[in-house]
């Protein structure tokens, strides 16, 4: 049986670019929605729950905002608005900008990769598949920006990795949802497990991380940028 197509939402304020990108992506990618601004992007992502969002970094806010000019924080707003609601969706920045501050900003917000609009349709398609499978993807010259920006936090990251290694893959999924404020019932529905199983996983997470409540868990995850 052939693999299911990767479901994608394209977010860019230029309709011609969206149309061209849709046409250039290969047949293994199913474009399930489009948006031209940050506000409508969050709505489309929540409605379609795609595997990957191809996201421009500079976007207008939408919803009658005072200025319709693209905002450097627009891409961040989409990630921060949609990720807590659709935590299984991954974000891949696709921008004309190759400025270090844009790359670092959107990666800190939670994007799994960043490629430039000079990439071919085949390159974008490969990047989408890689991000959907959990890999991080960067255009070659942009990877250095990320290494430089996050190099100072290597020690802290290693410590966090050690803590996360105490948790099973399922416990990590439950931990992130609970830390984002999901109720046990919502976690159960999101992961297709019973509430009793959720309660068991939460107890194990708190014990392994030596925390006493879900509120401490949220603070712990926030400090380590895991939300």
From TrEMBL:
A biological process from GO: regulation of DNA-templated transcription
Alphabetical list of Gene3D superfamilies matching this protein: 3.40.50.2300
Transmembrane segments: none
4-aspartylphosphate modified-residue sites: 56
PROSITE patterns per record: HTH_LUXR_1, HTH_LUXR_2, RESPONSE_REGULATORY
Statement: the UniProt record of this protein carries the keyword DNA-binding: yes
Domain named HTH luxR-type: residues: 160-225
Domain Response regulatory: 7-132
Keywords noted in UniProt: DNA-binding, Phosphoprotein
This protein's record includes keyword Phosphoprotein: yes
GO molecular function term, any single one: DNA binding
Highest taxon in the source lineage: Bacteria
InterPro entries attached to this UniProt entry: CheY-like_superfamily, NreC/VraR/RcsB-like_REC, Sig_transdc_resp-reg_C-effctor, Sig_transdc_resp-reg_receiver, Tscrpt_reg_LuxR_C, WalR-like
Matches recorded under Pfam families: GerE, Response_reg
Protein name: LuxR family two component transcriptional regulator
Species per Swiss-Prot/TrEMBL record: Microbacterium kyungheense
């Amino acid at each position: 049986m052939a693999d299911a197509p990767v479901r994608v939402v394209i977010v860019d304020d230029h309709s011609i670019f969206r149309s061209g990108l849709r046409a250039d992506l290969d047949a293994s990618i199913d474009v399930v929605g489009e948006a031209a601004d940050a506000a409508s992007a969050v709505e489309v992502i929540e409605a379609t729950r795609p595997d990957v969002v191809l996201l421009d970094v500079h976007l207008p806010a939408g919803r009658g905002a005072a200025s319709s000019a693209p905002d450097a924080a627009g891409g961040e707003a989409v990630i921060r608005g949609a990720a807590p609601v659709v935590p299984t969706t991954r974000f891949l920045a696709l921008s004309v900008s190759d400025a270090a501050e844009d790359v670092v900003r959107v990666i800190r917000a939670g994007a799994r990769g960043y490629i430039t609009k000079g990439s071919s349709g085949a390159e974008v398609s490969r990047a989408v598949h890689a991000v959907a499978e959990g890999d991080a993807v960067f255009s070659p010259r942009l990877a250095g920006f990320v290494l430089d920006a996050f190099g100072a936090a290597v020690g802290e990251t290693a410590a966090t990795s050690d803590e996360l290694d105490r948790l099973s893959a399922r416990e990590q999924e439950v931990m992130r949802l609970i830390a984002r404020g999901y109720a046990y019932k919502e976690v159960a529905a999101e992961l297709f497990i019973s509430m009793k199983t959720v309660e068991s996983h939460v107890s194990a997470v708190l014990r392994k991380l030596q925390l006493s409540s879900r509120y401490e868990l949220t603070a712990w995850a926030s400090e380590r940028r895991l939300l």
